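We store amino acids, tokens; thus:
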Amino acid sequence: MEQNHELIDNVDENQYEMHVGKDTVKIEYIKTQNGEIYLTHTETPIGLEGQGLASEITGKVLEDIEQKGLRLVPLCPFVVGYIQKNPEWRKLVIR
């Protein structure tokens, strides 16, 4: 499956989204006034699991966070695991 879906920052819903057909893969977040972003939950619809979509959205979200100069607090276990497997993203995490 080609992994090139558009990332949408749905600020009204406080979540990043990728639309795959009629379904939505998402990462929910909380942004603070001082430039921190907390990634709280990653969700892939059951019918889309196992296709690498959660990894795809996580990578795109981290790129967006870096471009916006935000500091990351990963609370979602999937995002934490992704960063452990891709240590180049540790630079975004608040220590």
Helices lie at 53-68, 77-85. The chain has one domain: 8-92. The domain at 8-92 is CATH 3.40.630.30 (Aminopeptidase).
